[in-house]
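TODO from last week: model TolC family protein.
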Amino acid sequence: MHPMFQHVLVPGLATALLLQAAPVLAQTPAVLAGAVCPAVNPSLTLADAQRLAHDNNPTLSAARHELAATDGALQQAGAWPNPTFSMELEDTKKATRTTTYTLSQTLELGGKRGARVAAARLGQDAARSQLVAREAGLRADVAQAWFEVLHSRQRLALALQSADLAERMSDTTGRRVQAGKLSPVEQTRSRVAASSARLEVNQAESDARISGHKLATLLGRTSPCVGEAQGDGAVLPPLPQIADVVRLAAAAPSVRLAGIEVDRNKALADIESSKRIPDLTVSLGNKRDEEAARNMTVIGVSLPLPLFDRNQGNLLEALRRTDRARDELVAAELQAQSTAAEGYETLRNARAEAQALQQDVLPAAQQAYAAAARGFELGKFGFTEVLDAQRTLFQTQTQYLRALSAAHRAAASLEALLGTELARLPGAGQ
């Protein structure tokens, strides 16, 4: 047998990447990671990537700072108004001067302070829910990017093997043309096939770099050198029960956040309502009359009269914003249900496609290529048959990788929506 076909048919990594793609999708050669990124970091598991993102992602860090800032808002909401000290001087002549010292304190009426504290607490709850939602979303984004790195490097391995095979086929065809066994047209076809394979390699390298940049950004790094994605890319994500998806979608992080926003707007409306009741200011002081040579106690009470401004406009605005928040809650519930149903169907279809390709289509394409290669070696088939079989196998393997990527993307989107990992659901199965 020609060494070219021995290279393809002899068991090993090169053969597995081309003729047995499905079983070896769990493997990614470190040399490919080095080709994409010269300074490769140690192998990066999905758990490692999610841990790094949790510690270093700037967007998540910003959400933590926002939650910490609400502590200050809550503290300020409960603060009492400061007292006011005033001094009043009548007449500039010392003998007839009257000096008054007064200490005033505003007493908030109508439950203003309690309403402010309640609104601040709900603002803190909203920031906490937003942080939880961002953590869930980041876990899902990292999982999607990590699998994309894994699959892009596997596609690069596949493209490199296909390009190597195309070059060998081109060399063999050239020798046969020189020997007069094949038409020069076959040599032209083989060169075109080799050029197309090299273009596939360039595209695969570009995709691998782009996926590395995406993952590095999520990890809070400026360098795309994220190392070798270490894991099993051929393992499909679990498919949960549709009932669990519907149940969790009704209490998705986005829905919870919208519900808190309704309560917060109600609390803000309560603040504006409490402002309709004016605050009472009491004062106590001392008045010194130099001409009469005596001190007098000064007691005062002041209360604004709400004749013209009763805070009607601000209250109306707050009430309408509460109505808007209620509508947004309904919209969030409908959107969560719709997105969950769509994500579930996408995941189910991608899993079914990947399973069908792995169990039926890939083995058939591998057998067809092996038969065509052996027939070409024996002179029974022409180069066109081998080229078609090779192209079909490569396209099938690429389609399988894309189906795997689509399944992991759908699972990541569903996890981000539901705020939990699919594997943790009791009804989830492979």
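Done. The beta strands are 84-90, 98-107, 280-289, 294-302.
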